[in-house]
Structures are given as structure tokens and as C-alpha cells.
């Protein structure tokens, strides 16, 4: 019976006795968004729930449970769901959706008798999708929220900006949004509300100071034309205001990604205005070691953008992109995504006291159609294991596996659009293929981040996931795949 739910619950005791119930659910103010989301999803599977005061499903707030933890009790008296917070209740409903069977009679359903009590091992369980390099129609964003909900993935990071496009709306800088390649304010508001109701937190990303061609095309006099965001009084104020605007667009997002990787930071050292600005921050721009100077300039940029996010009461997240030599300039309250083990290695970040998220290239990157790791590779991975691809990384040929520590917050699956526009006959086919690759791998990500210990073989897990993924297909069927 434990194979009927993914990720696998830690405590599950279900019998072979299926009990039939009326498709009714008790209303509850404290978890109203979770109830509404469940009713929506159940309707997509062909079961139409009504709210009644004595409904078959009852939701209960239990403050003794931890964040994300849930309990389910199913017997002849009905179904009782318990959680302390909205994500936990959504996890309970997701388990019900995976278990539920439509009965022959109208407005009926059945569930196996028994109990489930479960909680995640890792706080961070994430999916990232690159929206900037290849345009993704709005329905795909809602589609990815549904995938996260169904498999209890807590975070959906959206890479909104890159060289190719700035896909966010902006009142502050109306020239920034790329024509025909940006979402409206109404769409962003709906996305935020939709995800929050389902216990999925959006992590919006503006990736700077590199990856900024879209910035210099729109406002070259402000952001610069030298391959990265310029550092002077006006440009830094503009960037801080942009991150403030981003926070306001996503009021429920406690975490904001500020980028920080793959920037041509040496160009700062040859820019007179940048040197003047950095000198005003107390950094000696006359030092002979220009590589170190460029790293200090990056640390300053990261710190100032992080301060803008902190000022909004949020926590910034940054890519592993700064060197060990400037760790003293970077707040330990900033969360670091360790991905390449080139700019700085995972053990260095841990030794220096950073909290990190495992975003290792192998096997957690999808760069369709060029880089597609197998689902078994994803299943064999764990949140403590890194394997890089950069030729100068020490972990290119031999993976690094860290000792378990609370400083490793969890892990993430990442889909990048570098090759999508050239690797498929059409963009529509490319985005649809990418979505399929993500859908195939999300359950393996979910299993390995929810549960530290593996409880079944890859073959057993793949077999268990097949019918569950079939249920997910019904939830996703309503979203358009024409990429408009």
C-alpha cells in the first residue's frame, strides 16, 4: 500500500478495505484555500465535491504538527486531515488525490481505510524553470505549480530574466519588459495567488549582474553596455528599486533570487564610474590584484542587492558565484545555491557557515535537447551529493558527498532553455518536450528531497510512479500546450 503515494510516507498503515463516501467536504475558514484547490483538482479527475457541514472530509488545525507535516485518518466515520499550516494541509490533500478512486455511482468516491502520518526530511524541495531564454506561455507556469503541488515540492523558482528577455512587467522601468515576451501584472498576481493557495512558494529571480543584455538594450545609459550591470549611484538605486518592485509583485514569496553568477566582473575594474562608486564604499580600487578587486566588487553588488531584499522583510538567494576570498563581505543570512563547484566549492561554503541548496549540474540539470540525465540518475542522487561539469571544478570526475548537515537545506531540479530555440523544429514542440522531461523527473526529485533514506529500488519506484503520474496527467489536461 505504501507505493500508492509519492513521495513515500514515513508512517502509513492502509488496508485493502476500500470505503465509499459521498463527495462532500466540510468548510473550514483556516484552510479554505487548500479546500478550494482540492475541489478544483478533484473536479479535473471527474469527482465533483460539494461543501457540507457534515461532509465526508474534515480538515483540522493541529498546532502540534511541524511545518509541512500532516496526518490522515480514514475510517467508516469519514476522512480527517490534520496539519498546522497551509502547506501541510495541501500535502494531506495531495495524498488524498493520489489515493482517491472514483466510484461507479455519481458523486461518490472511495479511499482505503487506514492512517498516514508524514513530514519532509528537507525543508527545501524545489523546481526551477528558465522562462527568459525561450518564451513559455502563461499556462505552463500554472502547469508547473500543479506538478509541485501533486508531488509536494515546496518551491518553484522562476528564472524571469536573462540576456534574451525580461519577462516581468515593470511600472518603474516600462521599457524593460521584452515585447511579446513578458507576463502582465494580472498574470503575475494570479500566479502568486494560485501557487500560495496550493502551498507552493514562488521564488522569483532577476539574474544580475550578468545575464543582462535585455537591461542594456532597454536602458543602456542606466545599466551600462559592458556585459554586466554597471555599479554607480543611479544604476544601483535602480536595481534596488527593481528588487523592491519584484517583492511587491510576489507578496507571499519569502525568498527572492538575486542571481550572482557568470558575470564578466573583470569589466568593472576598467570602468571609471564603477571604480569611483566602489571606492566610495571603502574598497581600495588601487590594489594590483585586479581579480581580487573584481571579486570584491561582485561581493559588494550581491550585498547591496541582498540588502534591498532584506529591507522588504524577505530572504535573498544567490547562485554560487563569488570567491572564497570575499566571503567576509557576504552575509550568512543569504542562502547560496551550490551548483558548479567552480566559483567556490561546496565544502568551502559549508565551512564558511553558509546555508546552501544542492543544485548540482549532474544529474539535476535539464538543458534540452543537449543535456538530459536519466530518471535513474536523478533517483540515485541525494541532497548531499554534487557532481560538476566545469573543467576546472575539483568534482568533475569524482563526485563530492558532504556529511549530512542542517546547513544543506535540500535540493532542486533545474530546467534551462539555452538550447530550446535551436534544438527542436518549433518553439511549441521544444517547450512541450521540456515540460514532459520535467514531469518525468519531478517525482524522483520529490522522493529524494522528502525522504533522505531510500525505501525501494529504482525499478520499484518507477513502477509505483506510473499510475500516480497518470493521475497527474488528468490534473494537467486543462492547460494549453500551444505556448501562447
Q: State the shape.
A: globular
* Average predicted local confidence, pLDDT: 97
Parts with pLDDT < 50 across at least 5 consecutive residues = none
**Text of the CATH class of the largest domain:** Alpha Beta
Q: What is the distance, rounded to the nearest whole angstrom, between the alpha carbons of the first and last residues?
A: 41 Å
Strand ordering within the main sheet: 9-10-11-12-13-14-15-20
Instruction: Tell me the major beta sheet.
Output: 8 strands, parallel, barrel
Named at the architecture level, the CATH assignment of the largest domain is Alpha-Beta Barrel
C-alpha Rg, in Å? 23 Å
CATH topology of the largest domain: TIM Barrel
Strand proportion, as a percent range, falls in: 15-25%
Main structural class: alpha/beta
By oligomeric state, this entry counts as: single chain
Q: What is the CATH homologous superfamily assignment of the largest domain? A: Glycosidases
Helical content band: 25-40%
Amino acid at each position: 500500500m505504501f507505493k500508492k503515494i509519492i513521495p513515500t510516507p514515513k508512517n502509513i498503515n492502509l488496508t485493502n478495505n476500500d470505503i465509499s463516501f459521498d463527495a462532500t467536504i466540510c468548510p473550514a475558514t483556516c484552510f479554505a484555500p487548500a479546500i478550494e484547490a482540492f475541489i478544483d483538482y478533484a473536479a479535473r479527475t471527474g469527482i465533483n465535491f460539494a461543501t457540507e457541514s457534515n461532509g465526508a472530509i474534515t480538515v483540522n488545525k493541529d498546532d502540534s504538527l511541524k511545518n509541512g507535516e500532516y496526518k490522515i485518518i480514514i475510517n467508516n466515520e469519514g476522512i480527517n486531515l490534520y496539519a498546522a499550516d497551509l502547506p501541510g494541509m495541501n500535502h494531506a490533500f495531495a495524498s488524498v488525490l493520489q489515493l482517491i478512486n472514483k466510484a461507479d455511482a455519481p458523486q461518490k468516491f472511495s479511499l482505503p481505510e487506514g492512517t498516514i502520518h508524514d513530514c519532509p526530511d528537507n525543508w527545501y524541495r524545489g523546481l526551477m524553470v528558465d522562462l527568459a531564454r525561450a518564451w513559455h506561455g502563461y499556462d505552463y507556469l500554472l502547469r508547473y505549480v500543479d506538478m509541485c503541488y501533486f508531488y509536494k515540492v515546496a518551491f518553484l523558482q522562476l528564472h524571469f530574466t536573462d540576456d534574451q528577455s525580461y519577462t516581468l512587467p515593470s511600472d518603474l522601468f516600462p521599457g524593460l519588459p521584452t515585447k511579446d515576451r513578458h507576463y502582465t501584472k494580472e498574470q503575475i498576481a494570479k500566479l502568486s495567488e494560485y501557487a500560495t493557495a496550493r502551498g507552493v512558494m514562488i521564488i522569483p529571480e532577476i539574474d544580475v549582474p550578468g545575464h543582462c543584455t535585455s537591461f542594456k538594450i532597454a536602458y543602456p545609459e542606466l545599466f551600462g553596455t559592458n556585459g554586466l550591470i554597471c555599479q554607480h549611484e543611479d544604476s544601483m538605486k535602480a536595481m534596488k528599486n527593481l528588487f523592491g518592485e519584484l517583492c511587491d509583485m510576489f507578496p507571499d514569496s519569502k525568498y527572492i533570487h538575486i542571481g550572482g553568477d557568470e558575470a564578466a566582473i573583470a569589466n568593472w575594474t576598467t570602468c571609471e564610474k564603477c571604480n569611483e562608486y566602489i571606492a566610495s564604499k571603502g574598497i581600495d580600487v588601487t590594489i594590483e590584484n585586479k581579480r581580487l578587486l573584481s571579486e570584491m566588487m561582485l561581493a559588494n553588488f550581491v550585498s547591496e542587492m541582498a540588502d534591498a531584499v532584506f529591507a522588504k522583510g524577505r530572504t535573498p538567494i544567490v547562485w554560487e558565484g563569488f570567491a572564497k576570498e570575499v566571503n567576509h563581505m557576504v552575509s550568512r543570512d543569504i542562502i547560496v545555491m551550490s551548483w558548479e563547484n567552480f566559483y567556490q566549492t561546496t565544502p568551502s561554503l559549508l565551512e564558511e557557515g553558509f546555508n546552501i541548496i544542492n543544485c548540482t549540474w549532474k544529474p539535476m540539470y535539464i538543458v534540452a535537447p543537449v543535456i538530459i540525465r536519466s530518471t535513474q540518475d536523478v533517483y540515485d542522487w541525494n541532497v548531499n551529493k554534487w557532481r560538476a561539469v566545469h573543467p576546472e571544478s575539483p568534482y568533475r570526475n569524482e563526485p563530492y558527498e558532504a556529511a549530512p548537515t542542517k546547513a544543506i537545506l535540500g535540493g532542486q531540479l533545474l530546467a534551462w532553455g539555452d538550447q530550446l530555440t535551436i534544438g527542436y523544429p518549433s518553439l511549441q514542440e521544444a517547450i512541450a518536450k521540456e515540460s514532459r522531461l520535467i514531469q518525468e523527473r519531478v517525482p524522483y526529485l520529490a522522493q529524494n528531497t522528502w525522504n533522505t533514506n531510500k525505501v525501494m529500488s529504482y525499478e520499484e519506484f518507477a513502477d509505483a510512479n506510473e499510475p500516480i503520474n497518470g493521475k497527474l496527467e488528468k490534473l494537467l489536461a486543462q492547460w494549453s500546450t500551444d505556448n501562447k
